[in-house]
Amino acid sequence: MRVLVVEDEQLLADAVATGLRREAMAVDVVYDGAAALERIAVNDYDVIVLDRDLPVVHGDDVCRKVVELGMPTRVLMLTASGDVSDRVEGLEIGADDYLPKPFAFSELTARVRALGRRTTVALPPVLERAGIKLDPNRREVFREGREVQLAPKEFAVLEVLMRSEGAVVSAEQLLEKAWDENTDPFTNVVRVTVMTLRRKLGEPPVIVTVPGSGYRI
């Protein structure tokens, strides 16, 4: 899952980004609304964690732009105000969910994951395919009942492949969904991660390489 965090309090923004990355999400961070508009113009995000009171371009205007463009991206709006009227106004603008500050990080993560499931065809919270069971909320993976310990990027790649439901996923798509914008597009990190993931999942291999196209399960 790829997430954009837009928050002008830099310490908070960086802390949220760090926490979401530990949950195997690819996260980009910006600190004002204008930078957010630049990012959404060039990158596809599953979820935007959007502070409402942003400098340069207000968070409301960023949200309106997402709606105007007809993007499948879901918006989780953050605000220091907990008034019901503010929450209603944010949802009427086009936000998909609303979370007042201060918030528990576990709740933020759960809401981001729930919104991420709504950017595509609805899938069950626990994914199962080819003898593999993946639980994004618990960060657990089992193969034929055996728990498999994965690093965050390995987990992220496996989740993307599982969500594709047998469709081929290109290396470029994996790079876009599992890594942030600072990753070198010419790196071999996808190939190396897939190799490590295959080894950890064990025999017989379940990740198939489709020459010239990508990978599938």
Automatic annotation (TrEMBL):
UniProt keyword terms in alphabetical order = DNA-binding, Phosphoprotein, Transcription, Transcription regulation, Two-component regulatory system
* Keyword DNA-binding attributed: yes
InterPro entries for the chain: CheY-like_superfamily, OmpR/PhoB-type_DNA-bd, Sig_transdc_resp-reg_receiver, WalR-like, WH-like_DNA-bd_sf
| Recorded GO MF terms | phosphorelay response regulator activity; transcription cis-regulatory region binding
Listed GO biological process terms: regulation of DNA-templated transcription
Q: Which Pfam families match?
A: Response_reg (PF00072), Trans_reg_C (PF00486)
4-aspartylphosphate is found on: 51
**Record's keyword annotation contains Glycoprotein:** no
CDD domains noted in UniProt: REC_OmpR_CusR-like (cd19935), trans_reg_C (cd00383)
Per the record, GO CC terms? cytosol; protein-DNA complex
Coiled-coil-forming residues are none
**Boundaries of each OmpR/PhoB-type domain copy?**
124-217
- Tell me the ranges covered by the Response regulatory domain, including all copies: 2-116
Q: Which residues bind DNA?
A: 124-217
> Which domain of life, per UniProt?
Bacteria
Recorded hits in SUPFAM superfamilies, A to Z, give: CheY-like (SSF52172)
Write out the transmembrane intervals.
none
What does this chain do?
Member of the two-component regulatory system CutS/CutR, involved in the regulation of copper metabolism. CutR suppresses a defective melC1 gene, encoding a putative copper-transfer gene, probably by altering copper metabolism.
Protein name per Swiss-Prot or TrEMBL: Transcriptional regulatory protein CutR
Q: Which organism's genome codes for this protein?
A: Streptomyces eurocidicus
Lineage of producing organism: Bacteria, Bacillati, Actinomycetota, Actinomycetes, Kitasatosporales
